[in-house]
Amino acid sequence: MRGTTVFAVLGVFLAGCDGDEPVRSQYSLSADEAAIIIANAFGSGGFTYGFTGQMEDLAGVARSAPAGSADTVTLSRTKAGGTSYLYALHVVYGFAASDLDVTCGASGTYTTPTMVSQETTYVSLRFAGLAGDTLTASGYSWRLGSEEATFPSQKSFRDDIVATFDDLRIAKIAQRVLSGTVTFTMRERFPDGVVISLPGTWTYLDNRQAALVISGRAYTVEIDTGTVLEK
Fold it and tell me: Model's pTM, two decimal places?
């Protein structure tokens, strides 16, 4: 979760439509392949330390936030499977100790049986409700990845995922996301200039699962393992 990066993109723009498989080409990406990337980007388990893990870490920072100061906090996280993240958080505490503004940058790499990925992420958010047991978080996140897929076919591509969220509910003591929806657009850029744009939503369920809808295809994701189940 990070700077602004601008890419010159040439070629054909291809978009996935609701209910349809993304447009196929030499460098196409299926909805199932995209779902795996999203599960790693937004989950807390599997091969990455994704958006959910980052939100739950930040809830721990919010829990101990003193009022009326600014600080920089550094956290590092390493997961089995080769992911290593370093967080650089700039934290601004509200003088009334009711709100907490956080910007968070992280970078890392991971390897799965079908993909090798390098990624950089950035999150900007505000926590509200610091005095209670449940925090609410609103803001946006951005992720830039460079992927090398090995199955079902060899391909390389770059992707960015831009997401917004409003009133995510997070248990402050347990540091667990309870409910809320993240709306995102995922753009895949292939070597020949082809761009595929896939809209979607990620909704938190009660049992450490998330309902993922991407380009009209619905999945259930196990948040703590990154397992993707098609509905």
Answer: 0.76
